Amino acid sequence: MKHIIFSFCLLAAASAAYASSPKKSSVIPTSKVMTHDPVLAKQGDTYYLFATGQGISVMSSKDLQNWKFEKPVFEEAPQWAVETVKGYNGHTWAPDIIFHNGLYHLFYSCSAFGKNTSAIGHATNPTLDPSSPDFKWTDHGKVIQSVPNRDMWNAIDPNIIIDENGTPWMNFGSFWDGIKMVKLTPDMNGVAQPEEWYSLSRRQRTFNLDEENAGDGAVEAPFIMKHGDYYYLFVSFDYCCKGLKSDYKVMVGRSKTVTGPYLDKDGKAMNKGGGSLVIQGNKDYAGVGHNAAYHLDGKDYFISHAYSVAEEGAPKLIIREMTWTPDGWPVVNF
User: Which DSSP category does 65 fall into?
Assistant: First the structure.
């Protein structure tokens, strides 16, 4: 328990750093950045990192090596989320960012730890440059919500993928019955009608647990990347947020259609427990997970957080170049 508390204290300190530091432009090297659930976007010559934090943490960098804090996305917790999610107070989890149809779309998670009293929200901005006169986040409110004893899924950890037809899909989920996917409306403010839902990844769950219990099917944090002829689904197995006891690891499968089924290297479907290992903890990091993957500047990048052994389980930013085997599977050296 002390490692869980310590990890969350570190997160709180990291997300509050902007507000407490008088030097807003202080530069922090990647190896020193504390973060959870990071995602990236690039506009012009600047990279922007969004992560779990009070109001959603934001950092910027010109080189992926040196980072500075920007203002959080939300100065105050979205009122719809406070009213909808009991226990939510503005500490916002696991965002995703995507540029589509002239806008940056930010999706974010509002929840209470270990419960599926959760909702995913959506905000947009025409620019990520805070110095631009056009810079303004517009919140569009709730996209989906999960309700205990009604839903066997958890509405957190959103990731958006636009398929080859230009259709937006949201994949999401944590524990319970695993990772789900749903088609969104063209403006991505809600679920498209008629509704189309898919199960992408799940792990065996002890059958006699109450439905309101998160269970032991430890899979979460989906992220889909298109590479060549395939869509690749990355997920995190096992446990985050336990400091030195974290055993997070990233698994992958692929499919030629965005809705799956996603198969691992052995041909086992991820919605039947499959998944091939991409990366796991080592002597320097207790666990690594909640990743994103991007093609930027002619290279493929893997981004995640990992729990530093040297710093007693502090969650640190990990950015690595990602390569591919001759038969098309991702490789991350760690």
Answer: S
Residue 321 sits at φ, ψ, to 5 deg, of -70, 140
So what's the pLDDT on residue 19? 39
| Dihedral angle, C-alpha 309, 202, 198, 331, nearest 10 ° | 50
- The predicted pLDDT at position 2 comes to 35
Residues 98 and 112: beta-carbon distance below 8 Å: no
What secondary structure does DSSP assign to 150-170, as a single string? T-SS---S-EEEE-TTS-EEE
Question: Is the CB of residue 309 less than 8 Å from the CB of residue 268?
Answer: no
Which among 70, 220, 264, 300 is annotated as catalytic? Answer: 220
Report the C-alpha gap between 247 and 238 in whole angstroms: 6
Residue type, 41: A
* Known catalytic residue at 220: yes
Q: Are 182 and 188 in contact (CB under 8 A)?
A: no
Q: Which of 173, 155, 288 is nearest to 220 (CA)?
A: 173
Place of tokens 């440059």: 129
Angstrom distance (rounded) from CA 264 to CA 296: 25
Predicted model pTM: 0.93
C-alpha closest to that of 306 among 280, 328, 327, 274: 280
Q: Average pLDDT by consecutive 10-residue portion of the chain (334 residues)?
A: 40 42 68 97 98 98 97 97 94 98 98 92 98 98 96 96 97 97 98 97 92 92 98 97 96 98 98 98 96 97 97 97 98 94
How is residue 332 annotated by DSSP? E
Please give the single-letter amino acid code of residue 100: H
Measured in whole angstroms, how far is the alpha carbon of residue 42 from the centre of its chain? 17
- Of residues 37, 177, 238, 264, which has the active-site annotation? 37
Q: Answer yes or no: 216 catalytic.
A: no
